[in-house]
Amino acid sequence: MDEKRLEPALYLVPVPIGNRDDITLRALKTLQRADIIASEDTRTTGQLLALYGITAQRLQSYHDYNEAERAQELIHAVQGGSVVALVSEAGSPCISDPGYRLVGAAIAAGVKIVPLPGATALIPALSASGLAVHNFTFLGFPPQKKGRETFLKKALAQDETVVIYESGHRIIALLEELSALGAQKRRVCIARELTKMYEEFIRENLDDCLQRLATRPSQKGEFVVVLEGRGEEKTS
C-alpha cells in the first residue's frame, strides 16, 4: 500500500457489516496510516486489522460509555498532528453507532473531518426492497421502553418509505406493535443478515411477514425493516 502520510484529521472509516470483502482500499490505507484507531469494539477491530495484515500504532476504545472523555482526547490528538480513524464494530460510524458526539466536538474545535464512504445496512436494504426510495426516512433503532409508541406512530405517519433497525430478539414484537397500530396491510421488506451467509429478504405485507417469522423457532441475526410509506400505501 502507498505509504504517503495522511493529513492530520478525524477520519470516519466504515468497516464491513458482514462480508469482509466489502471494505474499501481507501479504508484499508487509512487504517494502515492512522496514528490512533478509535474503535467501538477493539476485539472485533483487532481481528479485522489482523485479517489484512495491519498493525495498529494505537488501538483505543471509543463507545457509548466513554464518549465524553475520549472525544476530547482524540480531538487534542488531531490538534497535536495525529491521524485519528474512528470505526464502529460494523458499518459506518455515527449511523446508529457511536460517533456523533465526537464529530460535533471536532466541528466545535475546528478539527478537520474526513468521512469515507462504505458499508452500511441502510442502503442495500433500501435498494433491494422493491419499495419507493426516491424519498425515505431513516429512524434507526426504536426505543425499548420510553417513547416507543411515539416512535412507532411517527414511523407510520411518514408519507415516504421508512427504514428501522431491529435485533432478532425484538423483531416479532416490533411487527406486532406496528400491526396493532394499523399497518397490517402495509408493504414491507424485512432484510436479515445483510452481506452474510444467511442473507434473506422477505417482501410481503406486514402481517404476512409477521406470520412467516412467527412460525420459526427463533429469530437470528440483525434485521432492517423497510416499511411502505403512508403516501405510497394510498396509491399502491
What does this structure look like?
The protein has 9 helices and 10 strands. It folds into 2 domains: 10-115, Tetrapyrrole methylase, N-terminal domain (Cobalt-precorrin-4 Transmethylase, domain 1, 3-Layer(aba) Sandwich), CATH 3.40.1010.10; 122-235, 2-Layer Sandwich (Methyltransferase, Cobalt-precorrin-4 Transmethylase, Domain 2). The chain has helices spanning 25-33, 42-51, 67-79, 100-109, 122-127, 148-157, 171-183, 206-214, 230-235; strands spanning 10-12, 36-39, 59-61, 84-87, 113-115, 136-140, 161-167, 187-192, 200-205, 222-227. The radius of gyration is 20 Å and the shape is elongated. With 236 residues, it is α/β, with parallel strands linked by helices. The protein starts with 9 loop residues before the first strand and ends with a helix. Strands 3-2-4-1-5 form a 5-stranded parallel sheet, with helices on both faces. The longest helix is centred in the N-terminal third of the chain and has 13 residues, at 67-79.
Main sheet: strand order: 3-2-4-1-5
Mean pLDDT: 93
- Spans of at least 5 consecutive residues whose pLDDT stays below 50 are none
Q: What is the beta-strand fraction?
A: 15-25%
Let me know the largest β-sheet.
5 strands, parallel
Q: What pattern of helices and strands is seen along the backbone? A: EHEHEHEHEHEHEHEEHEH
Specify Rg, calculated over alpha carbons: 20 Å
- Kindly state the number of beta strands: 10
Relative helix content: 25-40%
Mind telling me the CATH class of the largest domain?
Alpha Beta
Relevant CATH superfamily of the largest domain: Tetrapyrrole methylase, C-terminal domain
Distance between the termini: 51 Å
CATH topology of the largest domain: Methyltransferase, Cobalt-precorrin-4 Transmethylase, Domain 2
Count of separate structural domains: 2
